[in-house]
Amino acid sequence: LLPQLLLRRRPAPAGAFALLARPASSASGGLPPLTTEIHPGIKRGAFSQLTDADLSAFEAIVGGDHVIKDADEVLSYNIDWLRICRGQGQLVLRPKTTEEVSAIVRHCNKRRLAVVPQGGNTGLVGGSVPLFDEIVISTSRMNSLLSIDPVSGVLVAEAGCVLEQLDREAASQGLMMPLDLGAKGSCQIGGNLATNAGGLRLLRYGSLRGTTLGLEAVLPTGQVLDCLTTLRKDNTGYDIKQLLIGSEGTLGIITKAAILCPARPKSVQLAFLGLDSFQAVLDTYRLARRSLGEILSAFEFIDSESMRAVKQNLGLSCPLGEHSFYVLAETSGSNETHDREKLDGFIESVMSMDGCATDGTVAQDAGQFAHLWSLRERIVESLLVDGYEYKYDVSLPLADIYRLVEHMRTRLDGRVIRTAGYGHLGDGNLHLNFTTPKFDAKVLELIEPHVFDWVRDRRGSVSAEHGLGLKKSQYIRHSKADFAVRVMAEVKRLLDPNGIMNPYKVLPDE
Amino acid sequence: KYIHIINKADMAASKGLKILVGCKRVIDYAVKVRVKPDRSGVVTEGVKHSMNPFDEIAVEEAVRMKEKKLAGEAVAISVGPPQSQETLRTALAMGIDRAIHVEIPLAQLEKLQPIHVSKLLAKVCESEKPDLVILGKQAIDDDCNQTGQMLAALLDWPQATFASKIEPSQDSKQLRVTREVDGGLETIDVSVPAVVTSDLRLNEPRYATLPNIMKAKKKPLAKMSPDQLGVDLQPRQEVISVEDPPVRKAGAKVESVEDLVGKLREKGLVK
């Protein structure tokens, strides 16, 4: 009985089925192009080649079953989630313990073999897959939850634990993971930390830089860095874990993490509004902060083009009519009556304010709640159906956010299937995407570096939360001073003298 | 017994059928239900509740019949604790005209059974005189699937349960109801007044839009008590214990094909 209802009313949870729902690049005819073909300027570093002796060494460390050499199997580790990159890695290793990771990395450092740490492989900037023949070190087997303390809220887990599963475990103790993103069914906590993932609720719970209390990592020399404390406050020396958080796997492989989990809210409400101008979106946001204040837990906006994509490409239905913009405003609190009252107050203000929301609904049950969120969480997936997706993720002053979308839409008129803008309005973070049936170098030329220059001129960030990976490393100076970049290079040289840890990523090629 | 036979012309002239819709407040279907440690029931405190999904379908059908001008007035009724008012507000926000709340004190709530609810509804029908009562076929907390049938028996009205379609009959004098039965679909003609219970495929309930959510606050919501209706809520059943279903035994994960074959051999499943 119940499964029937669930099938009827709720689309599949975005994260869990995201990989399955990925189109098999059918529009572009099979495999994505080799990354080295898209970026012919990048030369392979002075790394060694894999030998049989290396293979024997790895087999001795993880066991023959977890050394993957079969071309078909290895292929999936070489292709990123967006299917815009294809590497030429020949080997995947799947360690189970920190000791195994350490032994592997020590060997690779001694032999000067390049490696790529890989978690859920859901990154969007080509940072988690090889370019040439780097060895993929997958954390997927390191998936044990080590402990949850219901009193302090501290959760300690191995890097390969899937975010959604950790959230479920936390739920059983009345807690929740402090971050949530569309990839939750596949992404792993190690990767979340390595990319300092933001997500839908950063507005309320802050970034991983604040909620990560400790971590354990294997440095590029193979040494184990144990900063795995569960203490809320520990001001003893330099906070080295902050270097690893957001380093996108270029300074080491995170193997364990201690996360501070907030209490799971007893009452979560969701309002979904239809608006007809971006100014109305901004006005609604101001209203939301004033009337919902401390219970506001998410504020996302979606433009009409993005909504069209989820409707056309995934067949999802939108309960509101056609509007230029849609807003999801979510509240999380400890008292349902109190929260509903606040939400009612917000809605009344929104409806009585001139030029504000003209249409909207409030989720009445869990099914409607999940469906409304899927209209936002599955946008990325829906755009992939068009064929090839050019993805941009920028931070801008709020007033400029949609100006960029309109500007680029005009610039690319007639050359793309669509220009979609949506994102974490509350964080000033725009997700800007263009789609074409196949990869089109001329379209890429029209987009880059123009879009990054536009953002730099308004002192925004060329990568708000997705990171630099491979795709944006040469634009780092658009948002960071040159000297800062040189200091970063020093740190990289210090921790990774042979440059084996995820080369070609994050820092520009110098 | 089957007193009025209303034809379509009459329906239009006489402002359409009057519909009474039942709504029950239940634990939200997406919530993981937990058994109380003393095994006397399930945990409801602090747990998300919402309208029984089959009742949402019933409400939606009533609103659609109004939109098609088959019905003139739609009234929602809920038998339950004070919080049932929220459930009724949802019904009002979907397009119901007014609501009736039969409030049950907390002490008697746990022992409330379909027999009591159907008697309460029957009493309300005596005064409200609806032409059609639509109830959800069953509630997802007790899965009883009894209230609609008992109500029809008490009122001595025809019943059409598990409806997947409701429309005027060929001669417009009755209602033609398609029922979901084990063997497929059964279509019957029922005279009004009648009791119909909704099944999953009857319709897909709408989202309550903001203007309607605001309007719902001003729609009439009348309160009644079981005493006023003269119904005795003496329980006829006693719940002895509530337990979790037996835990599934864990399977074993194998790391390789060799492992798998080895385990299958161990269990004597392959030679």
Describe this structure in words.
Chain A: This is D-2-hydroxyglutarate dehydrogenase, mitochondrial. Chain A: InterPro entries: FAD-bd_oxidored_4_C (IPR004113), FAD-bd_PCMH (IPR016166), FAD-bd_PCMH-like_sf (IPR036318), FAD-bd_PCMH_sub1 (IPR016167), FAD-bd_PCMH_sub2 (IPR016169), FAD-linked_Oxase-like_C (IPR016164), FAD-oxidored/transferase_4 (IPR051264), Oxid_FAD_bind_N (IPR006094). Chain A: Its cofactor is FAD. The complex is a heterodimer of chains A (510) and B (271). Chain A is α+β, with helices and mostly antiparallel strands and 510 residues long. Chain A has three domains: 35-138, 2-Layer Sandwich (Uridine Diphospho-n-acetylenolpyruvylglucosamine Reductase, domain 2), CATH 3.30.43; 145-260, Uridine Diphospho-n-acetylenolpyruvylglucosamine Reductase, domain 3 (2-Layer Sandwich), CATH 3.30.465.10; 267-458, Alpha-Beta Plaits (2-Layer Sandwich), CATH 3.30.70. Helix content of chain A is 35%, strand content 18%. Chain A has a seven-stranded antiparallel β-sheet with strand order 13-10-12-11-15-16-14, with helices on both faces. Chain A has a five-stranded antiparallel β-sheet with strand order 5-6-9-7-8. In chain A, strand 7 and strand 8 (224-227) form a beta hairpin. In chain A, helix 4 (52-62) packs antiparallel against helix 6 and helix 12 (278-292) runs antiparallel to helix 14 (336-352). The model of chain A is unreliable at 1-28 (pLDDT under 50). Chain B is of the alpha/beta class and 271 residues long. Chain B has one domain: 3-Layer(aba) Sandwich (Rossmann fold). In chain B, 28% of the residues lie in helices and 24% in strands. Chain B starts with 7 loop residues before the first helix and ends in a 5-residue tail after the last helix. The interface between A and B is medium-sized, with 29 and 26 residues.
